[in-house]
Specification:
The complex is a heterodimer of chains A (116) and B (111).
Chain A (H helix, E strand, L loop, with lengths): L4 E3 L2 E4 L5 E6 L6 E7 L6 E7 L2 E4 L8 E4 L6 E5 L8 E8 L10 E2 L3 E5 L1
Parallel strand pairs in A: 2-11
Antiparallel strand pairs in A: 1-3, 3-8, 4-5, 4-9, 5-6, 7-8, 9-10, 9-11
Chain B lengths: L4 E3 L2 E5 L4 E6 L6 E7 L6 E6 L5 E4 L2 E5 L5 E6 L8 E8 L6 E3 L3 E6 L1
Parallel strand pairs in B: 2-11
Antiparallel strand pairs in B: 1-3, 3-8, 4-5, 4-9, 6-7, 7-8, 9-10, 9-11
Classes of the chains: A mainly beta (116), B mainly beta (111).
């Protein structure tokens, strides 16, 4: 497909477990963003990648959250020792270069994480 | 912390009515975007405004960026049931490429 894809679409885990969420951006897009969206809220910025490097990770809530993008394409958001408060929809978006602050971000459908 | 406050939070109107959604901040943004999000999907970009006072039209939707680039509005004329969804504004501050999203306005248009 031509759009941003995210897997899994739903993830149920138990408190304390480790989870990985995957994002496949649009081919050729160098900028990739992760957001977290709680019920009834707007997306909350987590981290922004420019190529392989994290250009801005100021939105990661604590050191349990980590994200990688080793080859500048697919990205994985990793959450250690999950807590019930981590339950949310995790959205990924990509854009062509991310260098103007005016580009179109293309969002994936999100991964719905539920921590029991 | 949400730096962009949207109002109203919820809006339920009849088909054919007009409405305005507001996005306000105390911060200056270099650009501001409006998105619409439907259940189970990611947000979809509607428009980007970059110049203070700029007005853009997209069919029945009119977007305005405030002169000081701190606020924006979305006006929908003759709303239709297909306009139902969550409307989000998002701003990028100068020198950063981090988008800050607003609190969202949930619109329901009744046939």
């Amino acid at each position: 497909g031509a759009g941003v894809s995210q897997t899994p679409s739903n993830k149920v885990t138990e408190k304390g477990k480790y989870v990985e969420l995957r994002c496949d951006p649009i081919s050729g897009h160098t900028a990739l963003y992760w957001y977290r969206q709680s019920l009834g809220q707007g997306p909350e910025f987590l981290i922004y990648f420019q190529g392989t490097g994290a250009a801005d990770d100021s939105g990661l809530p604590n050191d349990r959250f980590f994200a990688v993008r080793p080859e500048g394409s697919v990205s994985t958001l990793k959450i250690q020792r999950t807590e019930r408060g981590d339950s949310a929809v995790y959205l990924c978006a990509s854009s062509w270069s991310g260098e103007s602050g005016r580009e179109t971000q293309y969002f994936g459908p999100g991964t719905r994480l539920l921590v029991l | 912390t949400q730096l962009l406050e949207q109002s109203p939070q919820f809006l339920s109107i009849q088909e054919g009515e007009n409405l305005t959604v507001y996005c306000n901040s105390s911060s200056v943004f270099s650009s501001l975007q409006w998105y619409r999000q439907e259940p189970g999907e990611g947000p979809v970009l509607l428009v980007t405004v970059v110049t203070g006072g700029e007005v853009k039209k997209l069919k029945r939707l009119t977007f305005q960026f405030g002169d000081a680039r701190k606020d924006s509005s979305l006006h929908i004329t003759a709303a239709q049931p297909g306009d139902t969804g969550l409307y989000l504004c998002a701003g990028a501050r100068a020198g950063t490429y981090k988008y800050i999203f607003g609190t969202g306005t949930r619109l329901k248009v009744l046939a």
